[in-house]
Amino acid sequence: MVTKIQTNVINVFIADPLSEDGIFPLRQETDLNLNVVINTGLTPEQLIAKIEDVHVLLVRSQTKVTREIIAAAKNLKLIGRAGVGVDNIDLAAATEHGIIVVNAPDGNTNSAAEHTIAMMTSLARHIPQAYNALKNGVWDRKSYVGVELKNKTLGVVGFGRIGTEVAYRAKGQRMNVIAYDPFLTEERAQELGVTKGTVDEVVKAADFISVHTPLLPETRNLINKEKFAIMKEGVRIINCARGGIIDEDDLYDAIVEGKVAGAALDVFVEEPATNHKLLTLPQVIATPHLGASTIEAQESVAVDVSNDIIKFFKTGTVTNPVNMPSIPKELLAQVEPFFGLAEKLGSFLSQVTTEPIKEINVSYAGEVANYDVRPLTSNTLKGLLQKNHGDHVNDVNARYLSERIGIKINEHKTTTAKGFTNLITVEVKTENEVHTIAGTLLNGLGARIVKVENYVVDVVPQGHLLYIKNTDKPGAIGRVATKLAEKEINIATMQVGRDQVGGTAVMMLTIDNVVTQEDLSYVAQLENIDEVKAITL
To answer: What does the record give as EC number (predicted)?
Structure first.
């Protein structure tokens, strides 16, 4: 909730070309005194010169809303992005200046899903290649014998809004669908009539593979030579999501070698991609990033943002916030010190949990239980989701995104903090796992993780950590330290905890280096070591 804006004239500045139908809600609004100005194609310097008295800045992807532009906008209350991605907006600067950023996450879903299906069909039937041959005077039917979609298996990697819509359409073509998403549960998969699988299971089973994940460090080059090696012979690849999810060099090699029968690409790592080597292959069809380029989508995203602008100035709330809105100063002063701790607790759990999360319980004990803790829960959820959903997850939309993917959220309060002035405990539940972490703020010392699972520890929640479960036997600590030294991994601090003598124990190590999967496997081979996980906070 943000404070309702009281002003006579609200200056709305549209800096990129938008559909006139899309901004019609602004034109017809009578309760607000909106002054809509359209001035496109400005340089950053020209925009800075015009933005001082602007209350709302509305853009698409062309205009880069930089920190300098935001600093010059002395009266700016809201930035609207008519589309999904906000890479062209400095969110940190907007938040620092108390400016709300909104986007239109659902406006192009249908357009992108339809384009994916169109590309898949065109790929299966060689439509672009046959058309080009015919235009060049060649009537050639034998060279362009295709395959049917019916009874083929479509693998969907990334099962969010667009991936789900693609699956609906594929099932209408009587395809079988197997899907991967870190938040896809078995119940949700059954409800949608798809098979749930890991990335490897999806790419092994599929005749067609379509990717729909955000581009994150975890998803960059997700589809690479190792994945191509386990695919079916003659598999076909579609990418209408983000360039970089598929390793383009490895895709090129897989097509040349005959492993991949063809690829349909709407996006590339570097755009425009007019001279890309993939475009030299006859098995590749491509479009210039047209996934959201329909009249309806461009109108829809503009309408969504226009309605959010009106809602903001009438009620002080928005439907699709991208960054954290202003909150009352007295509330901020109470809970702000806990923001970082809550986010780190969520992030830790996201890195130790291996299955889709079904439920999260956040418990507040001691002094913190006297506050409005909803912003803290949002920060916890943000930390939990960002690993797989990227930086677009924030304090405001984290709860919405969590509920949309089926996570049940529970908050608990108690004045008893069991020896601490304040204590935040977070528990996540999956189909087969339960993980718990607790943290506190110590006067003069800052945030601390004080409990992991059932083990008492004292760990600063920052940097690179190793979380090791082991059997409580003599020599375990020494063997771990020796193995890490062999890999030139320096230990900064170590905390150990156990449930009973000779039982299960944990080690929490702060280390100076990022560890590889190879390093983790190296340590995991040690006697009495049950589990080794790398955590970055």
So the answer is: 1.1.1.95
Q: What is the pLDDT of residues 361-414, one digit of tens each?
A: 999 999 999 888 888 998 999 999 988 887 767 776 788 788 888 899 999 999
170-199 confidence digits (pLDDT tens): 999 999 999 999 989 999 999 999 999 999
Domains 10-107+296-322 and 108-286 share a fold: yes
Instruction: In whole angstroms, give the CA distance from residue 177 to residue 208.
Output: 10
CATH architecture assignment, domain 463-536: 2-Layer Sandwich (3.30)
CATH of domain 325-461: 3.30.1330.90
Give the CA-trace dihedral at 388, 393, 394, 398, to 10 degrees.
Answer: -90
The whole-number average pLDDT for the span 232-244 is: 96
Residues serving a catalytic function are 242, 271, 289
Angle, alpha carbons 417-340-435 (nearest 5°): 60
- Alpha-carbon Rg for the chain, nearest whole angstrom, is 26
pLDDT at 1 over 50: no
Pick the CATH number of 108-286 from 3.40.190.10, 3.40.50.720, 1.10.10.10, 3.60.15.10: 3.40.50.720
Which amino acid makes up residue 140? Answer: D
Q: How far is CA 43 from the centre of its chain?
A: 31
Mean pLDDT, the chain, integer? 91
Nearest to 185 by CA among 385, 358, 382, 386: 358
Supply φ then ψ for residue 78, to 5 degrees: -150, 140
